[in-house]
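Narrative progress, year one. The postdoctoral researcher (J.K.) led the effort to move from monomer predictions toward full complexes, under supervision of the PI. The following entry was the first complex the group processed end to end, covering 224 residues in total.
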Amino acid sequence: DVKVTQSSRYLVKRTGEKVFLECVQDMDHENMFWYRQDPGLGLRLIYFSYDVKMKEKGDIPEGYSVSREKKERFSLILESASTNQTSMYLCASSQGSGPYGYTFGSGTRLTVV
Amino acid sequence: QQPVQSPQAVILREGEDAVINCSSSKALYSVHWYRQKHGEAPVFLMILLKGGEQKGHDKISASFNEKKQQSSLYLTASQLSYSGTYFCGTEYSNAGNMLTFGGGTRLMVKP
């Protein structure tokens, strides 16, 4: 089974801190994605990556950046955390171009105080 | 633009049927369906490609109406384990497997 592992289940950070959310997948998937999930809004795409060192902005990239130095790891960075970034963050991976289902990680619930 | 899901919530008794709809204002290449149980990751159920095919997974099936840019998820003879939030994810082109998700439909199945 493909596994997508997010390093932290819960995080509490202070406003203005730089925050790193880590995601690792173990099945050599080419695509990796970061979504945030908020009640009533579903999942909204922040950034995605098709390959190492490749990244594309999603629908809500403001205030975020990403890093993909190795194929299996995709990091989401909050440059200066703000309270409106309090959310559930979900990482996902998929096989490649083509209609493949996503495998999601269990999520990181981030609270910015 | 996010696809629109309806209804937003539904409560069923065990054994009853339900339909969840997902509508897009843009032409679709594919539609994915996921189920998320409380506190867990969304789990992939099925993909439908344009062409109007219907797919099934146990007593859960789905259809894709290309003309209406709409997909429907059918839950037949619902079981307690079907409870959760269902999301559709839409793909607008065959480029990169990038999904835009709807707001979700909360389904509760009661004994």
